Amino acid sequence: MMTSNRKPKVWASFDPPESVIDYLSENLDLSYxxxxxxxxxxxxxxxxxDAEGLFVTLRDMVDEDLLNEAPNLKVVSNLxxxxxxxxxxxxxxxxxxxxxxxxxxxxxxxDLAWALLFAVARRIPEGDRMVRDGSxxxxxxxxxxxxxxxxxxxxxxxxxxxxxxxGRRGLGFNMRIIYNNRSRKEEFERENNAQFVEFDELLQxxxxxxxxxxxxxxxxxxxxxxxxEQMKRSAFLINIARGGLIREDEMIAVLKEQRIAGAGLDxxxxxxGIGAKLGDLDHVVLTPHIGSATHETRRQMAxxxxxxxxxxxxxxxxxxxxxxxAIYESNIPRNGVRNLISV
Length: 343
Ligand code: NAP
Ligand code: GLV
Known about the structure:
This protein has helices at residues 18-27, 41-48, 64-68, 88-93, 106-121, 124-133, 161-172, 186-192, 199-205, 225-230, 248-256, 274-278, 295-313, 324-330, 337-342, and strands at 9-12, 29-32, 53-56, 75-78, 97-99, 153-157, 176-180, 194-196, 208-211, 236-239, 262-265, 284-286. The protein is an alpha/beta fold. The longest helix has 19 residues, at 295-313. NADP nicotinamide-adenine-dinucleotide phosphate (NAP) binds at residues 81-82, 102, 105-106, 109, 158-163, 181-183, 212-216, 218-219, 240-242, 266-267, 289, 291-292.
């Protein structure tokens, strides 16, 4: 617990939104990367010696080497629900809280999955381009025929908050919902007439396969050519989770061959090269990782992530710790964790 009025030192790898700057500054000794660019290695390392808190985004890799150079660190607050960019195991061993922003971005991200699904199924970007470039000259019976949703099978890999929110929307479009996850979600099944299926069956039956699984050592690279070969030729892939679930080079090859009907992608392994690799494929719709990018959601994410920081650095358990159990088990007194256990 803090015993003086000294404010804990926090460094943010980005410029925190205006809506939380006052709150952060009142409670913390805040400095941040104001360049508007991704923080450089040098920039991060210059701050690590002093920092008690790090406020990061999903683009910042918080690995064991970095944590080893931060002797005073007590909390890493990630401005995202996914935390595959943070070595949680290494942080936990050092008694460092790792926090995320669950729940507040669920509906926005599910909406984006559906926006991609509609866009690719009904060829919206192609139509937009056609009207703008003057090649649209009037209604034709065979112009831009797409794929109907009603009566089709929506397959979801991942049965968490976002996976379920995507499934709930499917019911409204008269789709059959199937999903695969490591645990069954019985209420979701009951309320949405959803069916739990094994992973291979998910691949084989889905007309639209939506990925909503976190990226970790169990889920990385689980979809590649062999999995695409199991899918219907008429199926569409939608990925709003993380690029690393898919072997990206194999996906690109499969899309070029039109082995599946198309894809809507918000996330990538190689963000810089992907536009050039997929840019001329009309049956692929690309967005730049904007799943949670609404004004409302980003405000709530910023507030949640800021509260996590402030609480952790003022001796309170942060509400959204992803390593609560490990932290308690580590029982490291340096960060005041023992004090927390005894309250
Ligand atoms: P969540 O509620 O934690 O759901 C994750 C689901 O994955 C849970 O149902 C979990 O199963 C399941 N799962 C299966 N195998 C797993 C394993 N080995 N490790 C961990 N979980 C496993 O997460 P969410 O809020 O739905 O978010 C899902 C992911 O979406 C995030 O991790 C993030 O990568 C991505 N995302 C992307 C955007 C975007 O902008 N495109 C926005 C938000 C999130 P149990 O229920 O059995 O635990
Ligand atoms: C975004 O991708 C998130 O994980 O919040």
